[in-house]
Every structure is written in structure tokens, then in C-alpha cells.
Write a structure and sequence with these properties.
This protein is of the alpha+beta class and 74 residues long. It has three helices and two strands. It has one domain. It is globular, with a radius of gyration of 13 Å. Pfam families: RHH_4.
């Protein structure tokens, strides 16, 4: 089941629907960067290029998890 979060991006209200597992990772990223949920979504929006916002969020979460695994390997 998808969970929606609403945010204002570039002056327009929008919502992003992602699986809770992705939101959990994005929440960790936001906390590590000292950003709010909205602040992280604004950053993703500004850096995503032509990629859909939900896809950019999922890819960021996957990249983050992959980098956590690399840094935690012995």
C-alpha cells in the first residue's frame, strides 16, 4: 500500500505516493541532512531532471541503502 505525503514544490501543491519502506529511508536521509520531509522533497525536485518525482525519491532511497551497506561492510 502506498502512503502519500503532500508538499509545495515551486509554488505548486503536489503529493508523492511511495511505499512506507521508501519513506522510512527518506526520513533517515532527511534527518542526516538536517532537513524536514518537505525540505528533502524540494531538494529531490530541484535535482531530479526530467525523472518523475516518485521515481527520483525511490532511486535516492536505493542509493542511500546501497551506500550504507558499502560503508558497513568489514
Amino acid at each position: 500500500m502506498l502512503k502519500k505525503r503532500s508538499v509545495v514544490l515551486a509554488g505548486h501543491a503536489t503529493s508523492v505516493a511511495l511505499e512506507p519502506e521508501f519513506w522510512a529511508v527518506l526520513d533517515r536521509i532527511a534527518a542526516q541532512r538536517g532537513l524536514s520531509h518537505a525540505g528533502l522533497l524540494v531538494w529531490v525536485d530541484e535535482t531530479r531532471g526530467r525523472r518523475p518525482l516518485a521515481s527520483a525519491c525511490r532511486l535516492l532511497a536505493l542509493q542511500h541503502v546501497a551506500s550504507e551497506r558499502v560503508t558497513s561492510e568489514p
